[in-house]
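Limitations

Structures in this collection are predictions, not experimental determinations, and the ligand pose is part of the prediction. Treat each record accordingly. The example that follows, with phosphoenolpyruvate as the small molecule, is included so readers can see exactly what is and is not provided: the inputs are given verbatim, and the output is the predicted complex.
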Amino acid sequence: MAEQTDTESRKLLRRLRDTLAEDTAGQARLDHIVELIATSMQTEVCSIYLFRDAETLELCATEGLKAEAVHQTRMKLGEGLVGRAARDGTVVNEADAPSARGFRYMPETGEEVYSSFCGVPITRLGDKLGVLVVQSREARAFSDDEVYALEVVAMVLAEMTELGAFVGEGEALKARHTNPMMFRGGIGQEGVAEGHVWLHEPRVVVTNPIADDPEAETERLREAVDALRVSVDDMLKSVSDDPVDKDQREVLEAYRMFASSRSWLKRMEEDIAAGLSAEAAVEKEQSAARTRLGQSSDPYLRERLQDLDDLSNRLLRILTGQGRDTGAGMPENPILVARNIGPAELLDYGRGELKGIVLEQGSVGSHAAIVARAWAIPLIVHAGDRITAEALNGDHIMVDGDQGIVHLRPDDTVVSAFRDKIAMQAQAQKRYAGIRDLPAESKDGIRVSMLMNAGLIAELPSLNDSGAEGVGLFRTELQFLARNTVPRRSELAGIYSRVLDAAGGKKVVFRTLDIGSDKVLPYMKRDDEPNPALGWRAIRVGLDKVGVMRMQLQALIRAANGRPLSVMFPFVAQFDEFRAARQHLLDEVERERKLGHVLPEKVEIGAMLETPSLAFAPRQFFEMADFISIGGNDLKQFFFAADRENERVRRRYDTLNVSFLSFIEQIARRCDETGTPVSFCGEDAGRPIEAMCFAAMGLRHLSMRPASVGPVKHLIRRVDLGEARDVIDRARGSGVQSVRGDVMEWLRGLS
Ligand code: PEP
Ligand code: MG
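Predicted complex:
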């Protein structure tokens, strides 16, 4: 680019920055800015159009067009040349605008005398903010240098908009991040919560988009890029050559390629030469990449652009020194807002810290969702891709986990309706507390035992509060996930012993380590499995690498210390696996006996039925198992061949689907034949209608999150299960796909 333009561009940027120091605000500042740009670019017209709402652009300031058109002229996204530049996120450069495709004449502006038009989108990290337009009488296309200079200016305007530089008292321009917004997502966990936003990954804020000393900025940028390269190389060194680490290597190789890319660095250096700070230069290129990401459907290109986005974030963090820990304190009643989060990262927050969770991605079946459920806080998944960009730390937020709705910066009417709802829920809780010590006994005298699921010691107090009769599933992986190394036997024994102490004599069923699939231990090499949910997980890992399993079994025996012990093995697909795992436990008991340790008073060994194959195991399996627990989350995904983490397919199949209910009935019958106690411990056991139907199909033990015990018990006490069964049977006979409609109608008819 010509030196002349560089200097002119830098001069203009400096003048723009000076407007920030002036005593003008809002509209006056915008008016001054369009005047500065028109003079510097030697064009007759300069206008700034900003979004009024997601679909409408408004002329907010102009030099050259009629002043009375300001805040009057509006166009829809895609309408006219301005709307086209905004919609496509690309520059529209026309020498003869009136004859260009899509041109729309706005008579109130008096623009008919101008021939040439150049509109440059004002975007910030893929966020569309408006369009910067220059026009002139002379019919000429703007040169590449001129367009580039406008892009740099647009970038600065985007940063200024983000910083609220155009917001003035009582004026038409509203500050960003102040509007009330509503987001709809999927229900990960019911419940309502009011609190303040806490971003899992706060955005890096660039407060200095313009810099005076290009040499110094270039130097800063080069140093930061060097530091970035070193960190990528370090990451690469820590990944082995093992084929199992192939995916990770590939991503890091792509990072290294970008980090060493001359053209990436060159573009950013050009941006700096034009007057931007190093941070703004990184953001400008990142914005361009995000725009391309939004337009591309090629999966390979999208992945690479995602890599570049991630790398740009790392570079910005190096430049600004803003890490994940920005030094900001967590607000009161924090509600976590994140693109996505894994179970280990979520556990880092600790129970009791968060009041709710909102994820742009995530899924109902994931283990992060299970942690949220264990904590009994509302969780919304798939809340769209805007909330992390819109929300600011500390914003007022209300989460309605019953409806899957999030209100960000709600207005007064929403707040009062929401608070009414919270009060109603508190009343329902009182009702449930009233039946806490009564049995879950149906009108026709069938008793169903209510058990709870847990995975943390901190959840044990719920055993008494909820009225659960014991712990039907204690997931032991959370202690493994929350650490960087395998926990020691003594440490685990201590934890399990405290769990039994806290249960105060009520039964606790410990499930041995269930890792694999989405539960990846940071210290275990991730296998390069094309389909981890069907891969090397749970008991398959336990039986192949017996060291960890035996250590855990020893810890359990020691924790029991003379008390009864119940252990179940996850993900058993065939009889032999159960037989082998059971033998390991018996061997460990024998070993402990020889060592002279106190043995459990009684040992019960069960299996989780999570794969359809086990339902068809030989009778001897049912005879050998002391109990069986149906892991409905996994069983359902394999029964319907629908990934529990994939919202799109998961929702297609209703738990009350006739095939699934008939399958549950068949399992209950097989267990009945051998007198094997059977429970259901998947998430569906905590949904009142589903739980009631399971009871009607013959299940007598249900294990669920503690908050569900009250609602499930309340429904079971209201119904005649024999009648429920008749309703289900009639529905099944009628050829419906799911019995839900018939069951709901029957329930509505009950007094
Ligand atoms: C299940 O699959 O239903 C279950 C209880 O196990 P998890 O959700 O931990 O896989
Ligand atoms: Mg499971």
